[in-house]
Amino acid sequence: MASETVRHGGITPEQLEQFNRDGYLIVPNALPLTTVKALLDETHSLLDSFSLADHPMTKFSTGEKSAHVGDDYFLSSGDKIRFFFEEDAFSPATGELTRPKARAINKIGHGLHALSPPFAALLDPALNPDLLGAGTTSGSVAAGRKESHPAAVARALGFRDPRCLQSMVICKQPEIGGAVPPHQDSTFLYTDPPSAVGFWYALEDATAENGCLSFLPGSHKWAPVRQRFVRMPEGGTGFVDNDGPKFPPGDDYGEKATEGGREDGEYKMGEVKAGDLVLIHGNILHKSERNTSDKGRIIYTFHVIEGEGAKYDERNWLQPSAEGFTKLYRD
């Protein structure tokens, strides 16, 4: 039974202990390959069909020295499907794209979980019972849905009212996929107290060659959320000092919680296969290197925050629509 739980994306007590210890967890084979194909097909359809005619050609910047994106196209994308380009997809001399548009996009975001039927079915299997393999193994379709639902994982992690607030397809494009410096997701999706967890699904193999994730194990316990990525009063976005709680509640957290914790410590590479799920604690330091290979790396990720007992900050770059953020637990 434990293997069935893993196959459908749930986590065992041993995996929960590992997540709490390390701050991240790789769950093998969380998605059937038929689901991976459906999500990849949807991704390629979106990449092929969007129009350049009225696109502001917004670039998504991840480098420490680059100006972070903060135009209206980005700031109003929470309940839309929008396309953001790799910085190196443009000619420095002419400013023109140097490759086809589908091979120039850094990410698609941020409302896929609500607006794209295949991606929405991950949060609500009733939209497509077969997407996660419900009913394809022993047991009823209803049991399969329960096992496959990310809400089961959120429950195991201790969420009382998990809310999905953003979702993205990230395309680490061949030869130009940019490096992402060490960061914490709670910097960008801050709640008081911190509560964010990332659900990161590999739709293609992510390897050392094409820029897989790397983690500083245990850093979620001692690395504080020192800064926040916010909407600036003068417009655009920027980083400000965090004057709120820097850790989730609990005695396990604090700058002295782990002896010898250092931000220049050794990162552990997280190579994964298509269909694997990576759970990412909001406080853990993680990064990825530039993709200089000829093989891309497409992944789908959404983030969950606590809706009960945690306040979502009104200064965050991403703000909810009138309907609020998507609930994982159904009434």
Automatic annotation (TrEMBL):
Q: Which residues fall in a compositionally biased region of kind Basic and acidic residues? A: 253-263
Region (Disordered), start-end ranges: 237-263
Q: Which cofactors go with this protein? A: Fe cation
Q: Which domain of life is it from?
A: Eukaryota
Gene3D superfamilies recorded: q2cbj1_9rhob like domain
Whether Membrane counts among this entry's keywords is no
- Give the UniProt keywords, A-Z: Iron, Metal-binding
InterPro entries recorded for this chain? Phytyl_CoA_dOase-like
Q: One GO molecular-function annotation for this sequence? A: metal ion binding
* Record's keyword annotation contains Iron: yes
Similarity field: Belongs to the PhyH family.
Q: Which PANTHER family match?
A: PHYTANOYL-COA DIOXYGENASE DOMAIN CONTAINING 1, PHYTANOYL-COA DIOXYGENASE DOMAIN-CONTAINING PROTEIN 1
User: What is this protein's name?
Assistant: Fe2OG dioxygenase domain-containing protein
